[in-house]
Amino acid sequence: MKWSPRVLKFALNIYGPYLGAGIRITHIDPEWREMHVRMKLRWYNRNIMGTHFGGCLYAMVDPQMMLMLMNRLGKEYIVWDQAAEIEYVKPAKGTVEAHLSLSDAQLDEIKRKTSGGLAYRPSFEIAIRDVDGIVVSKVKKVLYVKRKKH
Predict the structure, then answer these.
(1) Could you list the residue range(s) of the whole structural domain that residue 78 is in?
(2) 5 close to 28: Cβ distance less than 8 angstroms
(3) How far does CA 120 lie from the centroid of its chain?
(4) Local confidence band at 82 (pLDDT 50, 70, 90 cut-offs)
(5) Is 111 exposed, middle or buried (0-12, 13-18, 19+ CB in 10 A)?
(6) What CATH number is attached to the domain comprising 13?
(7) What total of structural domains would you count in the chain?
(8) Is the per-residue pLDDT at 73 higher than 70?
(9) Sequence-distant (≥ 6) Cβ neighbours of residue 48 within 8 angstroms
């Protein structure tokens, strides 16, 4: 399913879990090469220590790589989130941001690795940063990608 970046941005910004966590998609590249996500610290997304709740930090970047890859590859491919891990580097206060990207080289490698009909599990590293650019969390996403049979 191919989405318009504008429609997806609107849909994600009113999506209940994102709305409830205060997560905002601020930019989706028209060619699906980048997506920017932001979250301000609010009373409803902070933990007992007064910092960002870890689940909200992960939710910021949960479906983006899958959505970007689905839209870049098109309906000839199966794309699923398969695994993830998050490392909390520093307590996150204030506004945090993540800039996710999918390069042409990454896309070419995925196409090459799936050209024979085998599944491929690319891994993506995503940094969540505070407004000073300091990394507060690192997320590793593993996707499952397979070319559909003709």
Answers:
(1) 5-147
(2) yes
(3) 18
(4) very high
(5) middle
(6) 3.10.129.10
(7) 1
(8) yes
(9) none
